[in-house]
Every structure is written in structure tokens, then in C-alpha cells.
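Limitations
The C-alpha cells in this dataset are predictions for the assembled complex, not deposited experimental models. Users should treat interface geometry with appropriate caution, especially where small molecules or nucleic acid strands are included. An illustrative entry is reproduced here so readers can see what is and is not provided.
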Amino acid sequence: MHSIIFASSNHHKMHEIQSILKQRIDIKSLKDLHDNQDIPEPYFTLEENALIKAKTIYDRYNQAVFSEDTGLFIDALHGEPGVKSARYALTKKSTLNNVDLVLDLLKNKTHRTAYFKTVICCILPQQTAYFTGYTFGHISSEIKGNSGFGYDGIFTPNTSDKTFAEMDLDSKNSFSHRRQAVDKFAVYLKNVKCID
Ligand code: IMP
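Predicted assembly:
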């Protein structure tokens, strides 16, 4: 196999995944394919949403594909935003953006533990496989740092005193939820002889 489609248009995710896989396989994002059609994410687990994204694109192109779904699970919010991480503020009918809403909901809360979970779903002809990664940490009281994306500015991993947004890409990629899932995915691609 020479290339694989990444069922996403998120250039931050694409950049992180490419820099972890270091060009061992040619990845084409939906943007590269000029595909702007929305993919549904209607389910209650990352696994189900990752599967429907991968399956939708596999059926559209009949080519090897992988998708990725990530959520931030905050203990004091009973696991929210979780699977709703991308549209959290909309689901709460809030005028705040996702990050400001989380900070607002956690105002005055001292118990701020949280984790990121990434699920990758890969569909090759005749086989579907999943790869998972986690980062455990806590939500800071304010946004810190300018790198990264999404909730990076308010999430400090347990192994660091910096938020993900205060780290450079290589530091985040050295241990993140996405890194762990992509590492397992890379071993799989190697076993099925898609990369060296
Ligand atoms: P999705 O996986 O594209 O549905 O993204 C879920 C939400 O989590 C989006 O708001 C992303 O911006 C955010 N997100 C995904 N991965 C990360 C990450 O590594 N750091 C911070 N936020 C993330």
C-alpha cells in the first residue's frame, strides 16, 4: 500500500500524526482530496464515531483509511465534554467557546483531574482495527501557552508542569494520547506490511 486516507480535515491532527509517523506512509487528508462533505459523528463513544468516520470514507473511496476521534474527559463534569468535545458549547447552548465554557463550569472547583483519550480506527480490505491512547492530567485555572489546538491551553499532563500549549510539538508528541495511539497503529501497519 502506498497511501492511506486520513478521514479528517483537521490540519493540527494531520500535522501531529505525520510528524509521529515521519513520512513512513503517504497520508492524504480529506482536504488533500478536496472532499468537504461533512461526516456524521452521531454516537456516544469515541470508538463508534471513529468507526462511522472511517467507514463513510472507506465506502466513498474504496481505499485504505483511518480515522481518529479524541475527547477530553473531566472528572468533576462527570466525564464531559468527552465524546462531545468538538461541540461542547453548542450542546450546552452556551455563548462561550468550548475552552471558556470548561473554565467557567470548573470555576471554584478544586478537583480538576481529567484525561484525553484518542481512538484510531483503521479499515483495510477485510479488516478493521482500533488503537487507543490516553494522557492523564488536570485542567488549569486559566489558558496558558499558544501552541497546539483545542483544549491544549487548559490541560496540564501529570508528567509536566506545563500545559500542552506551553510545549513545542515534539514535546507533546513524545508522550501524548495521540502519540500512544499512533505508535500502536504504526506497529500494526508494519505487521500488515504497509510500512517498513
Ligand atoms: P474530534 O476528535 O475532531 O471530534 O475533536 C474533539 C475536540 O477535542 C475538538 O474540539 C478538538 O479541538 C479537541 N482536541 C482533539 N485532540 C486534542 C488535543 O490533542 N489537544 C487538545 N484538544 C484536542
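Some entries come with short summary sentences. For this one: The chain has one domain: 3-191.
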